[in-house]
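1st attempt posting a full record on here, be nice pls
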Amino acid sequence: MNISLEPILPTSPRNRHLLLRLLAGFLAAIATLWAIFLAILVLPDWPQAILWFGPGYLLTAAYYWRALGHPSLNWARAIWILSLLTQGTWLICFLVSASHGHVQGDPFDILILIWWTISTLISFIALFLEPSY
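the predicted structure (as tokens):
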């Protein structure tokens, strides 16, 4: 089964490249704010926090590389796959926690849900937007 987003893709390779850079830049900017916020919260317990949040910090650097650098096609795809796995895992954990009544539904919870949903969707779409050549 070949999943293709060809009918809705920007037709110009230059436009597609720009869109991918913009998506990565958006994720990098929001992830940076999120990383700073988490660093402040978990600083006293940093060894354990690195295990939980380390992949996200690495992913933030990868977003910047995709947005500002020129990774090879394989590296670009690896970034989106890692993003999809990381953001998707957090989204699933959040939804499972919510289904067990552990989410209060306050504005912060809603903000987290929106972030993980959007970042997961962007990661999925961007993976298929990468050129196939």
